[in-house]
Amino acid sequence: MNEDVMQRFLVDPHVMVSTDGGPEMRHPRGFGSFAKIIRKYVNELNLFPLEEAIYKMSGLPAETLGLTDEAQVDVQRGLIREGFAADLLIFDPEKVNDPADFENPHTLAEGFDWVIVNGVALIEEGERNGLLPSGMIRRNVE
Fold it and tell me: What is the model's pTM?
């Protein structure tokens, strides 16, 4: 992609951050897309504040797509708010890094100390614990 065009898109308030990468791919975006946004576009280039980046990765997509928990259709996602699913990521933005590259595409992003999904920790103090508490997330169609 053209870097200048991508930066112009990223600063638009209606543009969400996502990835079409997955861990099965041999592409660094499968493990580093969101970390790269924080490292490069927030910390290095100061294109937008961290809070806006987080919203573009969480609240905006959840709201736009109408994401809810399949088991509890009335449980919303994407924001830290009473009644919403407890999905949290605790990190020091200055320590976030995306070391995956084309030679080593399956290298985990760094700097994410705690990952909590549905109120259950998946990563505690930087270490995976093997738990998988999530389920299918579907669009709430009314």
Answer: 0.85
